[in-house]
Specification:
By secondary structure, this protein is of the alpha+beta class. It has helices at 35-38, 48-58, 82-93, and strands at 12-17, 22-27, 40-47, 62-65, 72-78, 96-99, 103-107. The strands form three sheets. The chain has a three-stranded mixed β-sheet with strand order 4-7-6, with helices on one face. Strands 1-2 form a two-stranded antiparallel sheet. Strands 3-5 form a two-stranded antiparallel sheet.
């Protein structure tokens, strides 16, 4: 197995494509990658399953889907608690959530 290296500079982010083990660098840092520091989550016409991955990561939870989710969301959250964000998503997308200490469970 070979090793690959990339150099990341200021205002860049790195990525790994699991399907091909390709690594690379792109300009800019997606706002949600810094949510741990800023408390700011932003979604613009984002598939809800992708948004929920960012939300689960932000709150250090695993994500479990018990139903498929196809909708998209446009929303912005600033320093809101998880339960408040989930209440908004319940209203907007008709989803239901359960949380355990470690997992966010999503169902229709």
């Amino acid at each position: 197995i070979g090793t690959q290296k990339v150099s990341i500079e200021a205002n860049q982010s790195g990525y790994l494509l699991a399907s091909s083990n390709e690594i690379g660098v792109e300009e800019g840092i997606p706002v949600n990658n810094l949510s741990w520091k800023t408390g700011h989550l932003v979604f613009e016409e984002t598939p809800i399953d992708s948004a929920l991955l960012d939300i689960a990561h932000h709150f250090r939870k695993e994500l479990s889907f018990e139903s498929s989710v196809k909708e998209e969301i446009t929303a912005e959250f600033q320093d809101q608690p998880l339960q408040e964000i989930l209440k908004e998503l319940e209203l907007v997308a008709g989803l239901h959530f359960d949380t355990t200490r470690t997992t966010l469970i999503v169902r229709k």
